[in-house]
Design a protein that fits this description.
Elements (H helix, E strand, L loop, with lengths): L1 E3 L35 H7 L3 E11 L9 H6 L8 E14 L4 E5 H4 L4 E5 L5 E3 L1 E6 L4 E5 L21 E6 L7 E12 L10 E4 L11 E3 L5 E9 L9 E5 H14 L5 E2 L2 E5 L2 H6 L8 E6 L4 H5 L6 E5 L2 E2 L3 H9 L6 E8 L2 E8 L1 E2 L4 E3 H4 L6 E5 L13 E6 L4 H5 L6 E5 L2 E2 L3 H8 L5 E7 L2 E7 L1
Antiparallel strand pairs: 1-13, 2-3, 2-5, 3-4, 4-8, 5-6, 7-8, 9-10, 10-11, 11-14, 12-13, 13-14, 15-22, 16-17, 17-18, 18-19, 18-20, 20-21, 23-24, 24-25, 25-26, 26-27, 26-28, 28-29
Length: about 450
Amino acid sequence: MMRKIPGYTLFLVLFALAAGQARSALPVVEGGAAELPTLAPMLERATPAVVNIATRGRVQIRENPLFNDPFFRRFFDLPQRPRERITQSLGSGVVVDASKGYILTNNHVIEKADEIEVTLRDGRKMKAELVGADPATDVAVIRVRQDRLTALPMADSDRLRVGDFVVAIGNPFGLGQTVTSGIVSALGRTGLGIEGYEDFIQTDASINPGNSGGALVNLRGELVGINTAIFSQSGGNIGIGFAIPINMAREVMRQLVEHGRVERGVLGVQVQDLTPELAQAFAIPDRRGVVISAVVPGSAAEKAGLKTGDIIIAVNGRVVEDSADVRNRIGLIRVGSRVELKILRDGKERIVRATIGEEQRTEMKGEELHPYLDGALLGDIGENSPLYERVKGVVVVDVAPGSRAWRAGLRKGDVIMSANRRPVGSLGELRKAIKRQDTLLLNIQRGRSALFLLLR
């Protein structure tokens, strides 16, 4: 069973450290008649950059509708029950930019949080603000405003190899800070159903509940991954843990810092793995690459000249292994960016350049647009809607009771006509109007009436 690593105790200490390249020399104790191998010097440098994250939030309590019926409750003499409860979450994070206070962690550590508190290795506590989160990769960036921070340098996770040494530091099961070691067991793990975009580092270093969002480092103390999940039937470690490669996390972080969200684009192709049978049918000696099985009309792929039957063998100069590899690489390229594809067509190599297009979506979760809209499902007014050509705006398709959007006053059926005094007629226009804003002023049409809502 795949499990994201939850927090375990009320106070989660740091988590860190694992994975070095095979050519890295094992540190030794200096001086003495015989030098002893030790990781202590590296750990002393790295652990101050790993922080504890504690969050608080509220969730709606779901119950049988009969409990809300006054007659039913009076008849059975039932007391008034609370409609929401306070939630707490614990995890770890890694300081990656000391001057700006940026901390990398998992999205599931800070998801649904109203308050985020960070505790440093030296005991200092501070409030953190959410910069942005990407549920599809389970990466989030938070920020603290504090001096004297220690950051971990980021390595090139593409240079990791199976067999590289791994060390983990965390607070498993609330026991206190613990160090474990192992190796990189596998690379490029996909199809696990943990995230939308998967390219995991697998390790046998013990990763247990309480370690989520922590650092994976090599023997030089360089960050190579963010620990995220375990495979377990009991909830504890059995030697199969997974970390997000830092190259992926770094690209997601860049977009979150610059835009507040990951602006994923689409190429407009359907691809499938190149099996031995397909490789033989296409007369390809090397099985690396993927086959384009369909090209979406009007897409960036069609405009660039890609055709059904083309074999994609590299994206931006990097060889691709399978369809998941292509999806990961394209999915992290921002809308409007250029991508270079090396393809095989009729046995000959060609270079095709395309401009990544924007994914056409008619519905979007509110938190993808702004944290204040968390819990709302927003949509364009389509031709099948009774509001089509009668109202211009973005419709609130649904709102989770007790969510942040619910508490702000949004309700199912509301139509957002303007945001921050800018008229909006689509999800795209709404995104531009509220981008990077600290407060949201929404003009709402509700039935035959209209009102303003201030979200902050």
